[in-house]
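Input chain follows. Return structure tokens only.
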Amino acid sequence: MRNSANLERIQVPLEEPSHFGLYMLSSSKRPAPPAPAVLFVPGHGGSWKQGINLCAYLAKKDALHYYAADFHASASALHSSVVTSQALFTAKAIERIRKLHSGPLVLLGHSMGGIVALRAIAMGAARPDAVLLVSAPLQPHPLLLEPRFQAVQPVSFSWDLRLVSVSGGPTDPLVPMHTARPRTGVFQPLPGARDVYASFSHVNLLFSRHSLHFLAQLLRGLAKREELKSSPWRQLLNSSTSTPLPAPEAFSSQSMGGEAVPLSRLDQTQLFPRSGGVFSFLLMEEPKPIRRQPESSTRGETFDPADRLNCSEAVLAWEDEKASWRQVEAISMQFPVKACLLQLQPPGEATRVVLTPPA
């Protein structure tokens, strides 16, 4: 039987008109005040409906106020302006939920929704009590198609903000495990999580019974306003995956990924390398349509596993007058499109390289 939930649209005061929406999902069990609240932020091409199953699992015990943002399946992985507009709406949604409920608030971001959630925290006046990121690309990743994405990363994190990042495991071809590891907070791959011990694809973890049970328990624990070290949600995690939190003075207004670059400068056709002095670009090609039954190894995707770009040939075809730019690390990617991510190392004495197009 499919999980279901009652639906109510919540008005979010905005300075400018937006087609985005906020829904409150509820089950037959009414939350007892002051019950915690959860705001689900979907990812690239995602839907608010992806959170219905998790809402049903949360309602099996003490019910929570469950909200979901509706971005109409916007392509947040393809342009930074989409991330910014979604983050602005999410920040306003957090303020609206804070006015409706006095209990704790947990922000839940899936995939690129995790990037949107972190950006909303940096932009908004109201803040959640905790953040749960599910398969979010927190490290440089092929989905970040343009250098502008470096400017939409949050510039700082609060010392009292509890952050947990969960990875689906090695069978997630879209966001590999190492890209979901946060710089601070707790990182938990689902194959090592208590009572899970299984790996999931990028979207399936929002529909599988084992992962939903774990995420529901984790959300209930994060929603309790307790000290970080004594909170019961820590018992669900593998201690070996925890990243020690630095001292409060280690945080500053500077971007944790390097120098923050205003969008206005990026819009002037200037390209900035990623943090660490590495400039990245992508070669992409549309996958060939499948004319036969997909292989079992594809886990249901509609592409041919053998249809890939030859990244080695792409490296050899790259011509540049500067020999120092010949050091290239190629990363092959196929889902959702065939692509090669090439990272070029600039001269060692240069801290930042600015490329301007020819006049």
